[in-house]
Amino acid sequence: MEKEILSRELCKAFSDYLKEKEGRFTQERAAIINGIASCEIHFTLEDVRLALEEQHFHVSQATLYNTLNELVTAGFVTRFLVKEKAFYEVSFQKAYHCHLVCTNCGKITEFMNAELDMMIKDQKYKRFTYSDYTLMVYGICSVCKAQFKRASRMKNTKK
Known about the structure:
By secondary structure, the protein is an alpha+beta fold. The chain has 6 helices and 5 strands.
């Protein structure tokens, strides 16, 4: 149910945004937003395409890409790179948060830190007006670290 509400509210907000920009809110754009809402928290362009296929709705790669770009420009979706691959997440009506990114497997985990959030928001920026932020912390997740330790132990026992 939550995904349906997100989809409906995001469609309305995006439609209003496009009206201001003298753009059109099409059936394809609505389908793409529904596809986004059915994806995991962090998704790729391919994830959305597959979600649309499951819904038996086809849009061209260009329409999908352009709509995601427009959603990013509007501030409703955030794009970030992990291991040279573009990931997206819905930022519409979402509290700011940070990401832990495993540089080995690419797993993305979210965390919140109220002190950090306040520090960034309260910071005075010279000749710059703050609007939002994305923080990515890169490292090795516990699963990959355990695999590395196991592999290292196996290597050392073979010597």
